[in-house]
Amino acid sequence: MRHQTRPNPNDYLKPLVDIGFNHFNKGEFDQARICFEKALQKIQEIGHTSISHDRLKFDLYLQISQTYYKQLKYNDAIEFCQKAENMARTFKHRLHIAQALESRGKIKVKQQLFHAALDDYNEALQLKIAVHGSKHIDVADSYHAIAEIHVLQHQYNHALTLQENGLKIRLNKMGRDHFLVAQSYYSIGYTYYHLQQYDKALKNYKNCLNIRLKKSDNDYLGLAETYNGLGETYFKLHDDESAISMYQKSLNLKVSVFGDYQIENSNLYYRLSVVYLRQKQFEEAFFAIQKCLKIKLEYDGNNHIDVAKCYNTIACIYTGQGLYHDSAMMFRKSLQIKLNIAGYDQFDIADSYHNCGNAYLKIEEYQQALLMYQKSLFILLQIAKNDSHRKHIADLYRVIAKVYSYQCKDAEAIVMLEKYCNIILSQHGECQKVAAIYKEIASKYEKLHQQNEASRMHQEALRIIKNFSDENDSPKSIALAQHAIGDPNYYKAFMKVLKDEKCRSDCTPIVFVGPENSGKTSIMKLFSRQELIPNLMPTQIIDNPGIMIDLNSYKIFDSDTCDIGRILDRKVVAAIESTKWGMIYQEDMKDSNHSKSSIAKTADDSRLNNEKIQASLITPNQLHEESIGNLKPYGDHDYLSNAYTKPVNLKHYLDIFNNYYEHSLVIESDVKTHGYNCGKLWDFGGNPMHWIAHQPFMSGNSIYILTYNIAQDINQIVQTTDIDPNKMTYLQTIEECITNIVGRHSNQNRIEPCDDDNSDYDNDGISNEYSLPVIILVASHGDCVQNIEEQRRLFEGFEQALLASLPQYEKHICSSSIIFNCDPHDTSPATISQRKQSCHHLQQIIQRFYNSLPLLKNFIPIRWQIMSNLILKSSNRSYHQVNSILVDKINKIMFVNEIKQLSIDCGLYQGDQDLHDMLKSLHNLGDILYFQDNQGEGIIITQIEWLSDIFRRLFTMGKNARKVIGRRFLINYAARFKGKIPQSYLDNILKKISITDKHKQIIYHLMEKFDMIYPMEKDENDNSDDLYYFAPFTVEPRISLGHINLARYHVSDWLYIGYDQNELSFIPTSVFISLLVACFKQWKNSKVELYYNCVKYYVKANQYSYYLIVKKAKRHIGLRYYCEKESNATKDNITKVIDETRPQDFVYSQLIAILKEKLPTINCNNCQFSIQCHCNEMVTLNGLDQRDYEAIECHYCHQIVRTHYLKDWTIYTRNSEVPQCYFFKISKHIGIDWTKLAAKLDANIDVDTIKVENQTVFDRALKLLNEWFNRNCSSNATQNLITALRDIDRYDILLKLGISGNKLDM
Which residues are CB-neighbours of 76 under 8 A, at least 6 positions away? Predict the structure, then answer.
């Protein structure tokens, strides 16, 4: 029966039986059994017993059996089941007999006596049908119990029939929402899963889930079981995101019941690690498997198979991360445990040996790798039974041959290749793979100087190739094309380099930044050995002069005077040459005399004259005229047979090869053998408004040179050559620079500058440790301060003032003590010598940091370097010869798919992840601009200077427009005072640079992405066809808000939103501009007025309207609203509107969100509401209530500040209900379900863009919540969030957060 029947004894037995049940329910089975046995003894002492006593004895026998069953004493349990059955047969009660039979059947299942168990369950089923008929609910229970036994025997079709019969009965008797119906759906889903009918499994699991969610009754384990089933099914369907979501929900529920580190959770951690590993999310996979391992070690000890599986998974993670030494160690750990388990699966052990061999091969420990492979082969040869085993044996022969080749044991390699070939022949017949093996064997015979055998293998390969020749078979054609190349060894090396070889990234941007009129352009010209120009115009946005500097030799490479194409090619040429000579040496190392003569001959052959060079190069037209039959593939490195192979464009592939082959013969010898440490010079404009345009060009690998005018006081207003004076001081402008630079760099690792034994300076002002990014301080205008001691004093004073203002950035700032004389008219020998000395000093400081940059220490695949060279050279046709077809394929703007096709055509493609990593690397090196944008497609700018030119034209249009009258004057007025620019005007700017319509739309998209412009809605009175954009960067510094006649208005007190000095010293102008654009999006009104560091918005809410001023202070954003007294709105009306619409909360959340996006490394979570005291310091409002609103004590001057801010802004009544403070914890727990939450909160939120712009699930969820709140800021926001969490069934989050009422009580 389904439920344990409680005995109904006489009064004198009842207390004893109750005590027994209490012990049983507590898990005290021995004590329970003693009570039940005493009750049996008392019944026997009575002598004559009634039917009720017999039934009580039956129940007691079964209960005693249950105590033994719980203690895993199955034989004793069966003995008492048999007694119960005998007792039931005595009083001939068929249902009692059935109950005893089912109890015994359950025990036999535990003993894996499945046939005997089925006999008992089937007999019980027949007894139930005889009593109740075939439609009774107890019959359904029997169907499911029997089905479970069939499942254990893998007889899933039998099980499915019984389960469906049981479901029909339960639906008929209990309705659709009963928990037993849910259990039926779960069982059927489980069976369909094992039948590999995953769609049907999902359907039944979801039916089960819907019922359990309605009838949960705290059945968290039932829900967890269902989520786990869904996760397993999604995993099989390769829907990894859904699988992770389901596993995480199941895990969260189990953690809430059992706690974190419990054995019940270990399997879920394991499953999560596996799916994360499949997604190549290695950090998440490692976190999950570490938790699983900790649990398994605690509960199962060191020698359990589950522990071995954990080590194996960790090894796979290390392999994915390229940590092959660690991977080998973990594989060995896993293998050792499996060897210690008696009778363990030999095939799995063989697989473990194979894995160990792969790991040792990666770290070039060939003897260890060979030993592992041989042990794996030995096991497989003993147990081989099917094609799968033979395939593994073939793979082992192949990889063992490769190891022998690495060890220069060609005879042994031939034996293995022949065995490998025999298996391929038996499975596939004579195919192209067999031909390739014959060619490889032939190459081995050639190394052994067995020419007859080599010729025989070549002829066999030729015969097969001719039978399978197909001109569209690009990989075959390329693999066999080397006969047409003048130097076959070079071609072999070229193929190997494309697949395996790596090189160091040895070029980084060197960016000159600083205030306007600080001499940075002059210093950059001196540093790059150019002449100073009197009355230099200030840099507009960005200037890329096309200059690279070799920091080793201080050699200058200028694109106007030298062929940078050859310099870019040098690493590739050097890698191919090195590989070629290494291959030649390995081939002939057994015969040193032959090796010497061979190398000498090859060296002579490589110095051919130009005529012979051209004769040796293959042309695309010649390729198809040649006979394919005589071609030889490159033995061990079958580059074109990897998993990512796509149809390659043979012409492009050979064009690239010919380019490097020609260079190897004519390029300078020092380029072949010596590398450069190059820096690419950039000049960033000093106007603070320009930083909004600097964002796309900032790389994660730059070294920054911060210049300032030593002749100017640091607190003095910056002097500019422009008619619009900058109202910021030198210190504020430098704070702007440093905050933008440091805040935007995600990598802030500590580095130790490399020592330079060749340095001419005992102490470069460099300490032992810095944080990335490094900013080197350099002074200009040394000619204005003649006294050397005074120069040093001023430099030290500036440095001290800067560090006092920005103490948190001390580890980023390097003081060089270098002071340049920038007077272009001073050409005296002493000045020239001083400039050379300063430049040399700066070069040595940069070199020390350059050699410490982590990105430059990492090695990148050579194919990335080839793609970079191709893009850079093709984007400028003045570079060295580049095939015109390739030039036409590379545009100024490209999408990822276009770059992908190009890499496929050129034979450089190794998978989408490799392509993405390449583009990120080239972006960080400053070679391209890569934006993961445009609905995930990705945008690449191949000509960076071209984009910077567009931005320059855009940012300078206001000044140009002031020089004319008419419509341009009106445009200029609208731009300067309202930030309003017509699209036709922008189109005209873009038209001047001959841009296509497709590229124009991308430029508009990028400008919107970086908050330079945003489309405006038309005014009601605007009948023109022109569209307008809001562009806050057009404001002029001299335009101030001025004084407002407060007598005419209902005016609020100023409210400030910002940070303490220790958290954020300065809110950059770029952040403020993005905030203004966000406010414009929110309030959607074109009646906006721009002023210096201030904007006035016209806001409509309900039937009322008011003006809202948003201004920037140093590290705060100020808010103030007002409306005319003559309007229909009273002060109370507007205060009520403010209370309902909460603009202060919107600005609060937007400021945090923008800082997280623009300056991700700055901790911006502790944003606070403040007011300004008479002493100009900010007084924080946190923790105040309504009683404090009239008088607040300033923490600095201790004066009482009287204000109406709480009445005006109602901070105390709403702040605790603003849900932003909960976003962090929700984002931490929501997992992959953040997309479902987005659909419930606001279906208009662009989830795809959030995915592209944020890499982790946590960041995506946090971005979603902030964007939702920004769009839907209201008093009901918290309740709406709770409702959405309930709608997506995240009860585990609600349980974890402890929700009560309408608030998230955390």
Answer: 65, 68
